[in-house]
Amino acid sequence: MSYFGTIYAEDISHRAKVVYMYLKDRANTSGACWPGIKTIAADLHLSRSTVKRALDDLTRRGFIKKEPCYRENGSNSSNLYLVKNIRP
Questions:
Q1: What domains lie within the chain, and their CATH numbers?
Q2: Burial, 64: exposed, middle or buried (Cβ in 10 Å; 0-12, 13-18, 19+)?
Q3: Which of 27, 31, 42, 57 keeps 20 to 30 A from 67, CA to CA?
Q4: Residue 61 CB contacts under 8 Å (≥ 6 apart), including other chains
Q5: Do the beta carbons of residue 36 and residue 46 sit within 8 Å?
């Protein structure tokens, strides 16, 4: 089975599959990555609202864990996404 073969078989939206593959591709060996929604949207040629829906789908289904990150001054920064491996 291919690297992303199991995500292809999952019963989730196409937008969620694409965003999962994007995050998985950018994650480090621990599964962590922190791209901004604007960056994801621009790279995938999707709207920001589509990316947000996809991230919500993935979080709700347990494929990713989303943790907010903050700058030293307390303002919001990009979220930390922990991408879980999907096993067949």
A1: 5-83 (1.10.10.10)
A2: buried
A3: 42
A4: 10, 12, 16
A5: no
Mean pLDDT, the chain, as a whole number?
A: 90
CA distances from 48 to 38, 45, 54, 85 (A): 6, 9, 10, 25
Amino acid at 56: D
Answer for the pair 19, 37: CB distance below 8 angstroms, yes or no: no
Mean per-residue pLDDT for 25-43? 95
Spatial distance between the Cα atoms of 19 and 67, rounded to a whole number of angstroms: 17
pTM: 0.86
- Residue among 43, 50, 58, 53 nearest 12 (CA): 58
Summarize pLDDT for 11-33 with one digit per residue, the tens.
Answer: 899 999 999 999 999 999 999 99
